[in-house]
Amino acid sequence: MKGGGNEIAICPGSYDPVTNGHLDTIARVARTFKKVIVGVVDQPVRKQQTLFSAEERREFLDDATKDMENVTVEVFDTLLVEFARKHDATVVVKGLRAISDFEYEFEMNQLNRMLDPDIESFYLMSSPKYSFLSSSGVKEMAAFGGDTGDLVPKRVAEMLKERYRR
Ligand code: PNS
Which of 79, 110, 112 to mutate to test the pocket of ligand 1 (most atoms within 8 A of CB)? Predict the structure, then answer.
């Protein structure tokens, strides 16, 4: 068992697209850890085809975190534990919103623990303001012509509008 592994945190996700809730979590993690690596999963298995390509999702995150000096963004297409090991990270941090997130995260946690018990997952309670904000909610809103400007970075809101233009 490795010790003292609290310097680098991985914040993994689909980020399709990144929301202000994700950014709030990333900023809070960045205040706690020396280095944060945001891992954008190339193709999430359990979700439908992503709206944005991995490269687009990475670019949105790069742009939105450009003022966070200790945050970098990278696409990955491996197991999360392999991605963490590649970066010498032993900590994964995920944001938890409503209770509905719990069951899924609990299962993921068990799988990751089985794959590598040296990698510990931490769960950060979302700020109340973002408790019900999700990428899928934002996409639905945009698909029906709603303005997502208050929920996602400006560039993302513009791209959502463009993607759903009918
Ligand atoms: O934003 P999400 O969809 O909750 O993020 C899911 C993510 C990226 C954390 C998860 O899909 C993931 O870790 N994918 C990589 C494959 C993996 O390691 N799965 C868990 C163990 S089987």
Answer: 79
